[in-house]
Specification:
This protein is an alpha/beta fold. It has a single domain, classed as Uracil-DNA glycosylase-like domain (Uracil-DNA Glycosylase, subunit E), CATH 3.40.470. It is about 35% helix and about 15% strand. It contains seven helices and seven strands, in the order E-E-H-H-E-E-H-E-H-H-E-E-H-H. The strands form two sheets. The protein has a five-stranded mixed sheet, with helices on both faces. A two-stranded antiparallel sheet has the order 1-4. Helix 1 crosses helix 7 and helix 3 crosses helix 4. The longest helix is centred in the last third of the chain and has 18 residues. The relative contact order is 0.19.
């Protein structure tokens, strides 16, 4: 299955993102082999920095390092995929400012919801950062379900047993992008959360 052929945006209504950086994972995979979905913030400004781009994309470098920090032998994003981990973003376009509007997260969460539905055997979500957490909560709210992750600072709420429709949800920090190398305390937490998710799915 090719993800890009199954989900996407048609109208592009959001005004605080760069539509030229719109990205849906354009990879062929067997969704039944995915047990963890890692959801990060938004697409990178440069397409060549995306998870599945050729060469040495920034998102790939920081994510592979995060998985190495977590104790795996991954050397590429394809090694991460072989661990049963699919990587995507909450918002499919690049942000144009530091934050992302709540309305944009809400709109793009519909795309994310359709994307998540493609994977029948997922046991865990890694929610990397506030935008990913808000996206999952938006999906739940739209269906009349209680919020998945409670309000509060990530360092206070992580480590608890949160579930969304029977799937364990791990709130963590953003691992994709240059800040990964700067915020060393968060990098340690990210590694712990990835290791916990991998251990959870066995």
């Amino acid at each position: 299955m090719r993800i890009k052929e199954r989900v996407g945006c048609v109208q592009f209504p959001c005004t605080d993102v760069n539509h030229a950086s719109y990205l849906i994972p354009d990879i062929e995979l067997d969704p039944s082999g995915i047990s963890i979905i890692l959801i990060s913030e938004a697409s990178p400004v440069k397409v060549e920095d995306y998870y599945y781009s050729e060469g040495e994309p920034l998102f790939q470098k920081t994510t592979v390092q995060a998985f190495r920090d977590a104790g795996t032998d991954a050397t590429s994003i394809w090694d991460v995929l072989n661990l049963g981990v699919y990587l995507t973003t909450s918002v499919k376009c690049a942000k144009t400012a530091y934050g992302i509007k709540a309305s944009t997260i809400e709109t793009c969460s519909s795309i994310l919801e359709n994307e998540l539905a493609l994977f029948p055997n997922v046991k865990a979500f890694l929610l990397m950062g506030d935008v990913a957490i808000k996206s999952i909560n938006a999906i739940a709210r739209r269906a009349g379900e209680p919020r998945v992750i409670p309000a509060g600072s990530t360092y206070k709420i992580r480590g608890e047993g949160y579930y969304f429709r029977g799937i364990r949800a791990f709130p963590s920090y953003l691992q994709a992008g240059p800040s990964f190398y700067i915020e060393k305390s968060k990098r340690k937490v990210i590694a712990e959360d990835i290791a916990s998710a991998l251990k959870f799915v066995g």
